[in-house]
Design a protein that fits this description.
Strand order of the largest sheet: 3-2-1-4-5-6
Strand content: 15-25%
Number of strands: 6
Shape: globular
Structural class: alpha/beta
Largest sheet: 6 strands, parallel
Order of helices and strands: EHEHEHEHEHEHH
Mean pLDDT: 89
Distance between the termini: 30 Å
Low-confidence stretches: none
């Protein structure tokens, strides 16, 4: 896909960089994204960067209607580091929704690129990201939608800038 379609002031997108497997919690992200589009951000796009992991078929089935219709969801693999930095830099937010994680590099990479992070409220995220992320209840699509809104809504620009600044320090 042509990345220039996504990188413009008129296109907002959420970014998730992670292997596509159940513990990464793509289903909660998809539900929250659908809610955000329905309620407040009808043009919000979703970009997933990652390779296929174990038990990925059911996850792909959930995304299939969005992939097939209008391209509002993009799933990319093997994105070169320089292009991934561009995706991080221009995303409205990077979402790290994992149910469990060893160390979440994508959140740190996003922070390094000046992008705010929305993360599931699991211990490793609290330990690694500290006060530099907006947290949400791990199994709640509505709380994830709330957290994303708190970061991307122009009315909360001060909060967004504070997260970005704290992210620079953490990363």
């Amino acid at each position: 896909p042509d990345a220039s379609r996504w990188i413009s002031p008129s296109h907002q997108y959420l970014l998730m960089v992670s292997t596509i497997e159940p513990r990464k919690n793509h289903a909660t992200l998809l539900s929250a994204w659908e809610q955000l589009r329905q309620e407040r951000f009808p043009d919000l796009k979703l970009v997933i960067v990652g390779s296929l992991g174990w038990d990925h078929a059911s996850i792909l089935r959930g995304f299939r209607p969005w992939l097939a219709t209008n391209g509002d969801v993009q799933m990319l693999e093997e994105v070169p580091a320089a292009e991934l930095r561009v995706l991080y830099h221009h995303a409205a937010a990077t979402v790290c929704p994992s149910l469990s994680e060893g160390f979440d590099f994508s959140g740190i990479e996003a922070m390094r690129c000046g992008n705010p992070v929305v993360a599931s409220d699991i211990q490793v995220h609290r330990d690694v990201f500290g006060a530099a992320a907006e947290y949400f209840s791990t199994y709640s699509p509505s709380d994830l939608a709330r957290a994303v809104s708190a970061v991307i809504d122009p009315a909360h620009d001060g909060h967004r800038r504070a997260l970005i600044e704290r992210g620079r320090e953490v990363s």
